[in-house]
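Anyone opening a protein record will find just a pair of labelled lines. The record below illustrates this layout.
***
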Amino acid sequence: MDQWLSSFEQCSRLGHEIQVKINERDKYPRTDTSYIKLSTQIRSSMKKFSNDIAGLKTSFIRSSTAYRITEGEVERRQIMLNELISKEKKLDHAFNNESGSGYRQNLIGHTSSSRPSSNPWLDEPEEYHGLANQDIRSQQQSVIQQQDEGLDALSKVISHQKQMAVDIGQEVEAQNEIIDDLGDHMDRTNERLIKERRHINIVDRKTGTCMYWVIIVLLFIAIIVVAVIPHSK
């Protein structure tokens, strides 16, 4: 038995437990502590029951494609799922006491004029009453087609988003390459500035040395001139 069937069995058992608790709760007055306590437990279980049914709906298509099951098995699972959905509605009505005791008798699958069903989960859903097998099959195929169309639309959206992510990634890579090139240019420019600064320092040192020699030569000439002028007189 695959995972979907296992999940279905667990969900069915949970629905039966909720049904038992509702029947037990209705034995007490509304103001009784036991009534309030059981109502809190039932409300929590109902929420989980609804979430489990939603999970079964989602995994129904996956199970139909992941496992090589026959068309008849697909239809059987669709009927099982519809029965759970119908059961959820009945439990919700019974929990809110919308139909009184007569509805609760219908909920547990029997009336005073009929014996209890051995498996209430296999009762025919109300929406299929009076329909031929071909009509039921057509309804189920219509539901499956709608689900397929929804999955196709979701797949297109995901593909579009994936393409956008790829385009953004390529743009980021291109920008990173530009930033890397700028970094290389800045490094080379910095090296050139360092070399030019060294050349300037060398020129400064050379310029200072030449100035000293010029001053020495001028002083030497001045000494000679001073020495020669008195002798000329």
Notes: Residues 98-122 have pLDDT under 50 and may be disordered. Residues 3-129 form one domain. The helical segments are 3-25, 33-66, 71-95, 100-107, 133-232. The radius of gyration is 46 Å.
